[in-house]
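pasting for the record
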Amino acid sequence: MFTLGAGAMTGGNTFWIIWGGVLVLWLVLRYFAKQRMHPVPGMETQTYKKAQLYSVFGTTATFMFALVLATILPIQGFAGRIALAVLFIFAGLQVTKAAVQKVWCCPVCGKPLPVQTGLLGVVVIPVQKCPHCGTRIP
């Protein structure tokens, strides 16, 4: 069985352990982001693609930064780190939602199109026409 020795988290090893954890986390979140980038039939518009891109990468960056922040900050206890990560994820998703709504808006009336904030990120709800003025979304 493999166990970490007393000197495993000292000196130069700390950097490589954290770097390896961040790399694995980035790969997992990149896979998660690619899974969410599925095309919706009939919604191949530039506006939708741009909003979807903002949504996926904003959500991915939020989760990655929250997990890295909870890992490296010197907060005592597991519960404190989890609380900090949850707080940051909530705030980050609100910022991501605001950024997506600036892109995912009607070109005629300027009002934001439907966006939903869920537990796992910001989801762009595909629509063909603006629910406010009825204009077709380019």
